[in-house]
Design goal:
This protein has 10 helices and 5 strands; from the N terminus they run βααββαβαβαααααα. It is α/β, with parallel strands linked by helices and 257 residues long. Strands 3-2-1-4-5 form a 5-stranded mixed β-sheet, with helices on both faces. α6 crosses α8 and α9 packs antiparallel against α10 (245-253). The longest helix has 25 residues, at 195-219.
């Protein structure tokens, strides 16, 4: 079985705001401030509606029968369309089980809207059994199917009052959590030219999600204590063998059980 853990990072879609609000001769930073101010007036929160987000990073961890790999799709020069195409191309090729934290509530809806914008085809992802009967009762789209596991949804019992943040659950289990950066920091970091740092941050969110997923697989009996220890040791080796500073830092902050 192939498992793909994923996370996205986004910034305000300033091109959308310029078009919708008829803004002219303003910088991206100024347009972003207007977007946040309008959203605060509407909802009391700075958090933009899903269609106003532009994807700047998609990070994934792929576990196949023989391999474990962590990376961010494309590179710092890749367009949003290229990032999304790479994500759905991977689903077409490997048909992995998807794992996320709040993916059903945020990441996937944003991917839907941005795919519409760019005219992207993702037939395997949208399959519900018409072409492949195995998808009829287990597809990526149904909230209660297992081909996409939104761990925040599942662990909360699909109850809003039971939800916890990725950072809090990671901290509960002794995992590093969001060390040194938060989602609220992404826009300012991006404006300052810090896309490489954002991609690294996105990868650490994926690592936290994967560690929680492994513990969940132990909880529901799909891993034994022995196989769980083997999987975490495999991940620890991947991190310790890496030359990337953020991965070695993550390993150092990851407490032994």
């Amino acid at each position: 079985m192939n498992v793909l853990v994923f996370d996205i990072e986004t910034v305000p879609d300033t091109a959308y705001a310029r078009r919708i609000y008829a803004l002219r001769d303003l910088t991206d930073e100024q347009v972003g401030r207007i977007m946040f101010a309008k959203r605060r007036q509407e909802t009391g929160s700075d958090f933009l509606s899903h269609e106003q987000h532009r994807i700047i990073a998609i990070s994934v961890l792929m576990r196949t029968r023989d391999t474990l790999k962590l990376w961010s799709l494309g590179d710092e020069n890749s367009t949003e369309k290229e990032l999304i195409e790479r994500f759905f191309d991977g689903l077409d090729k490997y048909t992995p089980d998807l794992v996320s934290w709040n993916g059903a509530g945020f990441d996937l809806p944003v991917l839907h809207y941005r795919s519409l914008l760019h005219g992207i085809t993702a037939a395997r992802y949208w399959e519900t059994g018409n072409e492949d009967g195995s998808f009829r009762y287990n597809n990526y789209l149904s909230r209660f199917h297992w081909r996409h596991m939104d761990l925040m949804d599942i662990l909360s019992g699909f109850q809003g009052r039971g939800r916890a943040s990725l950072d809090d659950v990671a901290g509960l289990l002794g995992f590093p959590g969001k060390a040194g950066m938060r989602g609220a920091d992404v826009w300012e970091t991006y404006l300052g030219g810090g896309l490489a740092r954002i991609r690294a941050y996105c990868e650490t969110d994926v690592l936290n999600t994967y560690l929680i997923y492994l513990r969940f697989e132990l909880l529901r009996g799909n891993l034994t204590p022995q196989t769980h220890a083997q999987e975490t040791a495999r991940l620890r080796k991947l991190l310790d063998d890496s030359t990337a500073a953020h991965l070695r830092e993550f390993s150092a902050l990851w407490l032994d059980p």
